[in-house]
Design goal:
Layout lengths: L3 H14 L5 E6 L20 E7 L2 E6 L4 E5 L4 E6 L14 E7 L4 E6 L7 E5 L6 H4 L12 H8 L6 H6 L9 H11 L12 H22 L4 H10 L19 E4 L4 E4 L1 H4 L16
Antiparallel strand pairs: 1-6, 2-3, 3-4, 4-8, 5-7, 6-7, 9-10
Helix pairs in contact: 1-6, 1-7, 5-6
């Protein structure tokens, strides 16, 4: 799933490539992906892109027509950019393409989604806050106002596991499964630790790890075209999707805990005092 660093990479790329271009066509191939009807998507035709921004994991293209093209790539979505857009006809139901946007200079992009479970979402909105997912977002962890005390306040009193808190978009915007694994590994914290139980030293480490991990990942994504962002993300991971490999810090074996539709990865030596965490599918969690 694209998370904040990759989405920021896409935003930076689109800001550089699409700003100043005029939309000549916006074609929906998967009607279920379009979540709005007012304003209609064809309001974008003839509009010029003026800027690109990120809200959590949402991409926001602003136009001079007073309409924003907003999209969320969900778990299996991606953006394919073309300096010269293909002339092939999009056939609904016969393609992984959910949306195609064509610009006046011949360039454009497709939003694609792999798999059978379709969750990619596209919105045409007069204001990004009209998009429910954006309106619900918590603070952005890379904002200058997101201090150590901000994090402490967000964690205070939450009787939920720290892994889930980091992934909750209404608490902190932009972090998903992969980077929550990386942040907790860098902070040397168990993913099962209760948010309300962390002490001052834990919060210090967690805030430092969160800031450093995300900023390093954003820097690694910066300047890369969409086709290279996924590989850059994989190369930067210390534990996520590294099951069975050696932890780069201590050399212990990276372990996984499996859930219904995903997994988390961690290092027992670095994060849990050597304890192996129980598989959610088979038994109760170890605290």
């Amino acid at each position: 799933m694209p998370e904040m660093p990759e989405v920021q990479g896409l935003v930076d790329f689109l800001a550089a490539r699409a700003t100043g271009l005029t939309v000549i066509k916006a074609t929906v191939a998967n009607i279920a992906a379009l979540k709005t009807y007012d304003p209609p998507l064809d309001t974008l035709v003839g509009a010029t892109v003026t800027s690109a921004a990120r809200h959590g994991k949402f991409v926001d293209l602003t136009t001079d027509a007073g309409v924003h093209l907003v999209f969320h790539l969900a778990k299996a979505g991606w953006l394919r950019w073309y300096d010269q857009l293909p002339g092939t006809v999009i056939r609904p139901g016969k393609t992984p393409i959910a949306l195609r946007v064509a610009f006046g200079d011949g360039s454009g992009f497709d939003l694609t989604e792999a798999g059978t479970k379709k969750s990619l979402a596209v919105y045409a909105a007069r204001d990004p806050q009209d998009v429910p997912g954006i309106a619900r977002l918590g603070p952005d962890p890379l904002d200058d106002t997101f201090t150590r005390d901000t994090l402490a306040e967000l964690l205070s009193g939450r009787r939920t596991q720290i892994k889930g808190v980091l992934r909750d978009q209404s608490v902190i915007a932009g972090i998903g499964n992969a980077y929550s694994d990386e942040i907790l590994h860098a902070a040397r914290m168990s993913p099962y630790a209760l948010a309300a139980s962390v002490d001052a030293a834990d919060i210090d480490r967690l805030h430092s790890a969160l800031d450093r991990t995300l900023r390093d990942a954003v820097a690694a994504a910066s300047g890369k075209p969409p086709a290279e962002l996924k590989d850059a993300k994989r190369r930067g991971m210390a534990v996520h999707a590294r099951r069975g490999e050696a932890c780069p810090v201590c050399g212990d074996e990276v372990r996984s805990v499996f859930f219904a539709d995903n997994s988390l990865e961690y290092c027992p030596t670095c994060q849990t005092g050597g304890k192996l965490l129980a598989d959610r599918r088979l038994s109760r969690l170890l605290k």
